[in-house]
Amino acid sequence: MDLASIRNAYRRYANHYDRVFGPVFAQGRKFAIEVLNQKPGQRILEVGVGTGLSLPAYDPRTRVVGIDISPEMLDKARERVKAECDGHQVEDLLVMDAENLDFPDASFDSIACMYVASVVPHPDRLISEMRRVCKPGGDILIVNHFASRNPVLRGLEKGLRPLSKLVGFRPDMDLDTLPDHDGFERLSVRKANLFGYWKLVHYRNGGEVAETIETDAPRAVASK
Description:
By secondary structure, the chain is α/β, with parallel strands linked by helices. It has helices at 3-13, 17-36, 71-84, 123-133, 151-159, 164-167; strands at residues 43-47, 63-68, 90-95, 110-114, 139-145, 184-191, 198-205. The longest helix has 20 residues, at 17-36.
């Protein structure tokens, strides 16, 4: 996976994403936002906001900043904000690389990361950056597909791995690749979609900001 492949994939998806993927991913979005809405008044970062399908569901007292690597997807999100949101809960929508967030440390009370972990080239950098910009004690919710425990399905997923660049995600990402350690506590793993094929993983950010993983890539410049 690389940024160029991801941008190309989601450029192709932009005009059809809501119709094709909206219903399939709806339950996971619903579960994540239900958790976040239990604490109204937060400033929330949604990583991979896409076409903004989740935005109308946030509590109006919440301030949401959405980022995505695809300008075409964000254009759809801005249209949705105008048509379906009262405008107060959406603070900004920005083109940005999730592995190189252009925000100061501890900028957000909580973070939602839906259907992104298996899309980014380096999930460890994604986790590190989300921890860095999330306040200590904040919630980080990850909704994603993880590789099946069924050996037949797992074999099929591995067989699809060569198509990752074309489809825009890794079909065989294992849940065990996500961290679970002191300072970044995994509170729960919940089935979120069809047959538990997608899961909601709920983390609590620790008292210390995660050490930034060094990368040669420059930080992306936020743009509207």
